[in-house]
Amino acid sequence: MTEDDQIARLFATTENDIDEAFVLRVTRAVLAEQRRAADWAAARKRIAAETSATGAAVAAFYLLARLAPVPSDGVIDLVSPAIAGALILACWFATALLPDAGRATKATPRTSET
After folding, report:
1. What digits encode the pLDDT tens for the residues 49-92?
2. For residue 61, how many other CB atoms are within 10 A of its CB?
3. Among residues 61, 63, 111, 113, which one has the least CA distance to residue 89?
4. Cβ pair 57, 89 in contact under 8 A
5. For residues 76 and 82, is the Cβ–Cβ distance under 8 A?
6. Distance between CA atoms of 114 and 112, rounded to whole angstroms?
7. Which helix (H) or strand (E) holds 7?
8. Which of 3, 62, 68, 96 has the greatest number of beta carbons closer than 10 A?
9. With b meaning 16 or more CB within 10 Å and e meaning fewer, what string describes 38-56?
10. Band of the pLDDT at 114, cuts 50, 70, 90?
11. Among the residues of the chain, which ranges form H helices?
């Protein structure tokens, strides 16, 4: 067998043995990266929304507190705008404690990595 024949045999097209385990690992890695990127984008969006909502609530409370005159005894009346603002903040914080309440979640089955 000549050298040309050996080179031709090395470069000859043969039936490719596909490594199924490698393909599965790469597919899982790509899917995991896509899920991670989607989760990260959703987290950034949620953080931005909650931060802006917090700023708006604090600004509203500040403005409501400035509307009413400060009583001479230093105690805020129960019907003052500041108490109304505190009640709004309390309701907002109470609903923020359960962020997934009322939202349907999709359960994804976990598979063991081999």
Report:
1. 888 888 887 787 777 767 766 666 766 666 777 777 778 778 87
2. 17
3. 61
4. yes
5. yes
6. 6
7. helix 3-11
8. 68
9. eeeeeeeeeeeeeeeeeee
10. very low
11. 3-11, 20-67, 81-96
Q: What pLDDT does residue 106 have? A: 57
Domain range annotation of the chain: 19-96
- Are 92 and 50 within 8 A, CB to CB? no
Token code pair at residue 15 = 């039936």
d(CA 99, CA 45): 14
pTM flag (> 0.70)? no
State which amino acid sits at residue 25: R
* Distance of alpha carbon 62 from alpha carbon 89, whole angstroms: 11
Count CB-CB contacts under 10 A for residue 24.
13
